[in-house]
Specification:
Blueprint: H1 2-33, E1 38-43, H2 48-55, E2 60-65, H3 72-76, E3 83-88, H4 94-104, E4 111-117, H5 124-127, E5 137-144, E6 147-154, E7 165-173, E8 177-180, H6 186-189, E9 196-203, H7 212-217, H8 226-242, E10 244-251, E11 257-258, E12 261-262, H9 264-270, E13 276-277, E14 281-282, E15 291-300, E16 302-307, H10 324-351, H11 365-377, H12 389-418, H13 428-433, E17 437-441, H14 444-447, H15 449-452, H16 456-466, E18 477-478, H17 480-489, E19 492-497, H18 498-508, H19 511-515, E20 517-521, E21 527-534, H20 540-552, H21 555-563, H22 572-576, H23 583-626, H24 633-645
Parallel strand pairs: 1-2, 1-3, 3-4, 4-5, 9-10, 9-13, 17-18, 17-19
Antiparallel strand pairs: 5-6, 6-7, 7-8, 11-12, 14-21, 15-21, 16-19, 16-20
Length: about 650
């Protein structure tokens, strides 16, 4: 009898030890397959040997008996990226652990839950009320002797009214080991969100009479709110990909930190009202703690656009062909030739034995030498020339030098009219130093531009030419249509998203005006905007994967030309068309002409007065002579004739 009892007890003990070995092997293989090396166990096991063997696994193990005063935070809120949590669900107070965890932490993918039970099926009724999400990592292992059957448990979003989903995952046996049938990427197999209702917010800066839903979904006037409407179009693709409903609402702004609190979309995310944004965000360091950036889908080409001046206002068009040094050397050479010509004429006058005629090179050599030099430079003819060999050599060399100088000058002028006009305003600093007026689009971002930009020249330009002051009370802020009207008139640079202006430019500008446009990006390279979800959102990785699939499949590329108007193209034939000289370029020539006419009239008046004055003096002298005793009849007759001529 005693032998029989001993055999029964020995068999039970052997089965218990064997079962413990199966559990240990299962735990080791399961967590090793998920690359988990830190384990926290909540159980009520009394088998000391089992506990010892579990704590001897090649991982960091913390074993805790389940009781009401257990500190979940200190045990599970650690710095590990992934941590395994084992819960013996058959223990009397196992639901207490789940409740404490639900109240203090979240079921995200940092915690790999394994619920052990000897029930025939997972405890669906108890798990239904847990705040699980689509990123939850929870597995229920039902044990029957040496067989462990595994079930994957998650909820698309308990907070949004989702329903629990339990899927058969695989099994483990000592003979076959771990067999996992769910080999797909987690967010592919959980792709169906079962018509879950999510909230999105969008910022619209333009006012329109269209229906809100129609305005944000249909590409009518795509140049308005381009960036936000494109992002919403991508979100609609994401909605269909994951099968959820998108409730869209309009928000006042993207979100700024004002008096210690966030407004706009970010404020709504922090309040739990909004799950994702249909307006992309710029990447700002201060926003990292309040929202989650996912994927960049839209590159913003934002900067100043203007009609580039055809000439540099700092330099006259007629002085452009030569540099300052060339002009200085030419002036010195011209003066040298004039002096040499004057010297040769004076030498010729010393040896000339004939009578010298009036108003010739020999009679007034200084004036005539200057006029001959000016005539040579301007390619004009002269009435006389030197007769000596030395003078003629100077004369011919002067005209040859002037001819070459004129050829280079005129060729440069002509080529400048045939070639594409040079662009010298190519940076923000060049724009700051130019005499162009500047303005910005009247949107919220423009008013914070000087605080957000890191370019010192852009900040100076904003303060100097845009910001309100005593001369411009409202500042240089305009609607897009008004701003581009001023751009078309010229002399004005407008800061705006180029996607907004391209359609306006194509519809209102002619070819000449389009070809004169110059763009200056304030931030280089192109500014990227990012899709954003709420902080610690369970949908972050899922939506990131979805956005990347949209990019990979070319869907975003197909949507881009629908919402982003193409850049107006300058016709190739336009560059080969000669550029006519406008009136402003020709003004200096008219100015010099008027100066010459004015000076000649003044000199003419002075000469007339001079002649009148001396003729009146001569007349008086003649009258005095007629009264003298020595004045005879013949002289009297000559004076009478002179007076008649006068």
């Amino acid at each position: 009898m005693n032998l029989k009892i001993w055999l029964i007890l020995s068999t039970l003990l052997f089965q218990l030890i064997q079962c413990d070995k199966d559990l240990i092997h299962f735990l080791r293989e399961y967590f090793a397959s998920n690359y988990i090396h830190q384990l926290v166990i909540f159980a009520c096991w009394n088998a000391i040997e089992l506990v010892k063997k579990i704590t001897q696994l090649d991982t960091v193990v913390s074993y805790n008996l389940i009781h009401e005063h257990i500190d979940i935070i200190s045990l599970l809120k650690v710095n590990y990226y992934h941590i395994g949590v084992i819960l013996d669900y058959d223990c009397p107070k196992s639901n207490f652990i789940l409740k404490q965890f639900s109240d203090q932490l979240v079921f995200n993918d940092s915690y790999f839950w394994l619920l052990l039970t000897e029930a025939s099926s997972p405890p669906t009724a108890s798990l239904r009320d847990l705040p699980l999400t689509v990123q939850t990592e929870m597995t229920v292992a039902t044990r029957k002797n040496e067989l462990f059957e595994l079930y994957d448990v998650y909820n698309p979003s308990y907070r949004h009214g989702g329903f629990i989903n339990i899927t058969y995952k695989g099994q483990w046996t000592p003979k076959n080991g771990l067999v996992n049938k769910l080999t797909q990427y987690k967010y592919i197999r959980r792709q169906n969100l079962s018509d879950l209702s999510l909230n999105a917010s969008i910022v619209l800066t333009k006012s329109t009479d269209m229906d809100f839903e129609k305005y944000v979904t249909e590409p009518v006037n795509p140049q308005l709110d381009t960036m936000a409407r494109f992002q919403h179009a991508v979100n609609l693709i994401l909605r269909d990909y994951y099968n959820f409903r998108l409730n869209l609402k309009r928000s006042s702004s993207w979100g700024m930190l004002v008096n210690g609190s966030w407004n706009g979309i970010i404020g709504e995310m922090l309040d739990g009202v909004t799950d994702l944004s249909s307006s992309p965000f710029y990447f700002r360091p201060e926003r990292l703690s309040v929202c989650e950036y996912t994927v960049s889908l839209w590159n913003v080409n934002i900067g100043f656009i203007f009609r580039h001046p055809r000439k540099d206002e700092m330099k006259n068009s007629f002085l452009k062909p030569f540099t300052t040094l060339t002009w200085s050397v030419s002036l010195v050479i011209g003066i040298t030739y004039c002096i040499c010509l004057f010297i040769t004429v004076k030498v010729e006058a010393c040896f000339n034995k004939f009578e010298i005629s009036e108003n010739t090179l020999m009679s007034i050599p200084a004036s005539e030498s200057g006029l001959i030099t000016m005539a040579a430079i301007s390619q004009q003819g002269v009435s006389n020339s030197p007769s000596t060999f030395s003078g003629r050599i100077v004369f011919l060399s002067l005209f040859l030098w002037a001819f070459l100088l004129y050829q280079y000058y005129s060729a440069d002028i002509v080529s400048s009219l045939l070639a594409k006009p040079p662009r010298w305003i190519i940076s923000v600093k060049d724009l700051l130093d130019s005499n162009l007026e500047c303005g910005m689009e009247d949107i919220l971002y423009s008013y914070y531009f000087h605080k957000l930009t890191t370019d010192p020249f852009a900040r100076q330009l904003y303060l100097k030419k845009v910001t309100p002051n005593k001369n411009r009370l409202k500042g240089e802020f305009y609607l897009a249509e008004e701003g581009y009207k001023r751009v078309r008139k010229g002399g004005f640079a407008f800061y705006c998203d180029f996607a907004i202006g391209y359609k306006i430019i194509e519809e209102t500008f002619n070819d000449d005006e389009i070809c004169e446009l110059q763009e200056i990006l304030v931030i280089k390279p192109h500014v990227k905007t990012w899709s954003v979800v709420s902080k610690n959102s369970p949908f972050k990785k899922m939506f990131t994967y979805g956005y990347r699939k949209i990019v990979e499949h070319g869907i975003s590329k197909r949507l881009y030309p629908i919402w982003h108007h193409r850049k107006p193209i300058c016709p190739e034939a336009h560059n080969s068309k000669p550029s006519p000289m406008n009136f402003n370029d020709f003004c200096p020539a008219l100015f010099f002409l008027l100066i010459g006419v004015g000076v000649s009239i003044i000199i003419l008046a002075v000469e007339c007065l001079h002649n009148k004055f001396f003729e009146s003096i001569n007349l008086k002298n003649m009258l005095i002579e007629t009264k003298s005793p020595s004045f005879n009849g013949e002289k009297h007759q000559e004076v009478i004739e002179d007076l008649q001529d006068f």
